[in-house]
Amino acid sequence: MYDINKIYINGEFVTPHGTEVLELFSPVSGEKVSRVVLADEVDTQNAIAAAKTAFQTFRYTDKAERIGYLRKLHDIMAVRKQDLVDVMMEEFGCPRYFTELLISGAVNDFKNMADILENYDFEPIVGRSKVRLQAVGVVGVIIPWNSSNGFIATKVSAAISAGCTCVIKPSELSARQTQLMMEIFHEAGLPKGVVNFVTGKGTVVGAEITRNPDVNKITFTGSTNVGKTIAKGAADTMKRVTLELGGKAPNIILDDADFATAIPQALFACYINSGQACVAATRLLVPQHRLAEVNELAKNAIKNMVKVGLPQENDTTIGPMVTSNHWQTVQNYIHIGIEEDKAELLAGGLGKPEGLENGNFVKATVFTNVSNQMRIAREEIFGPVLCIIPYKDEEDAIAIANDTPFGLGAYITGKDRKRIDYIAERIDAGRVCINGDFHDDLAPFGGFKQSGYGREFGVYGLDAYLEPKAIIG
Ligand code: NAD
Fold first, then answer.
1. Aldehyde dehydrogenase domain: which residues (predicted)?
2. CATH number of the domain encompassing residue 110
């Protein structure tokens, strides 16, 4: 049993003022594994005050000093990588192969930002003026559980590069992963108050960050509904806001694609992070006349290539859902899919896979002949549930891909690059991945439509923490 009873404020591990205790359960065994003392509004105000004071000095640090912190954070994280991987697999149940990818990405975020900073001009000349790019101020970092330390790395590396200070509100479900991250930041020796951690509830800590006038910007990753609440609350004090929200990504397979590789790859793209990913390719759009072939390939891939299992096993592709509540939500969607008249359940379905009854495991599920109007095709399920949707022609595929309130990720597989570029141009999403190239950690990442606004990663990510001030004359 892990007792997690410290938060990190002004360079010190402190006991929270809050007294509420949250119990966390293993997603694999269902056993109680952690007790977390939750921070409250007073803790949050203390953290914001520390970040505000630290900002008065940190904003004027020179670039070389900030690069030094970033490189140090990178090096410490690289040394602690295995610990980060192990705890993420245990606490969240993320399969090993994907956990390693996520944590490697997180480690690299610090190096990438340091490299960008080396050549970044904070005082470009525009017209007759010097534009001074200044740090926006105290940043509230509010994040979900599905790649907790990855989000911290992406957001905080950019924020401190700009000279901002941070109050991080991780998901209370990631308390152990957060503890490791606090240790890493402490070891890096940043000035006191530059980075603070307040683990607590969204409606308590998150709400205080949203309303507190001393917070200048919020960077949020999470659900579209909470994103809307934050955007409304932040408007009162005109905070700058970056929102990375939900998704329902289309994956278009063109008829000239190599289906034997494209279909198994499409399943993996849906099942990344056990389906608990905002960019999961949950809507597989295939040519109507090839539907039977696609169904056969999908069934084979489920049988031979997809394994629901323990996160630590090397060949596991799908681990458990994060909580039993979330497991139930996914079951409800599978039930809805079965009840809705049109679609056919091709694989998986309700209940737990054999031998994995104790944890929050969901069967790798595929519905085929799905209409884009069905709830399972419109709403974010956040579990391993794929919808195969047939399209008539290219224009129909584009229309279906865009017929969603979301616009985060999109995928296209095919041979004819001209055709792919034509479609990519017409897709309303912040990121279009071609032929299985799933990620570029220097490219901007963010949403169109109700998937949010603002961008992260690379230079675009850094810009989000800067206010341009024109010095004219
Ligand atoms: P969530 O929106 O429930 O919670 C996210 C964070 O917001 C948590 O720390 C939570 O405590 C906090 N929060 C909750 N209510 C709040 C309030 N009223 N005020 C301030 N903060 C509050 O999301 P979740 O269930 O933890 O994560 C899953 C969601 O995150 C999915 O919708 C997924 O698509 C999205 N997500 C988006 C991206 C992206 O980059 N676009 C990445 C990963 C996950």
1. 15-471
2. 3.40.605.10
Total domains in the fold of the chain? 2
Q: Are residues 62 and 115 in the same domain?
A: yes
Residue 112 and residue 144 in one domain:
yes
AA letter at 337: G
CA end-to-end span of the chain = 63
194 and 162, same structural domain?
yes
Least confident of 92-96, 437-441, 445-449: 437-441
Q: Is the CB of 247 under 6 A from ligand 1?
A: yes
* The model's pTM: 0.97
Ligand 1 centroid – CA 222 distance (Å) = 2
**Catalytic-residue membership of 244:** yes
| DSSP states of 368-390 | ES--TTSHHHHS---SSEEEEEE
Give the span between the Cα atoms of 40 and 242, in whole angstroms: 24
**DSSP letter for each residue of 447-469:** -SGGGEE--BSHHHHHHTTEEEE
CA of 166 to the centre of ligand 1 (A): 18
Atom of ligand 1 nearest to the CA of 243: 41
Please state, in angstroms and as integers, the Cα–Cα distance from residue 341 to each residue in 337, 351, 368, following that order.
8, 20, 12
Question: Could you tell me where the DSSP H helices lie in 221-283?
Answer: 224-235, 259-271
- On whether both 292 and 201 belong to a single domain, the answer is no
Parallel, antiparallel or unpaired: strands 138-142 and 217-221:
parallel
Rounded to 10 degrees, the C-alpha dihedral 8/14/20/23 comes to: 70
Q: What is the ipTM of this complex?
A: 0.96
Question: Is pLDDT at 341 greater than 80 in this prediction?
Answer: no
* pLDDT recorded at residue 447: 98
pLDDT number for residue 403: 98
Q: List the catalytic residue out of 41, 91, 172, 244.
A: 244
Same domain, 378 and 299: yes
* Residues 398-402, mean pLDDT to the nearest whole number: 98
Does 207 sit in the ligand 1 pocket, CB within 6 Å?
yes
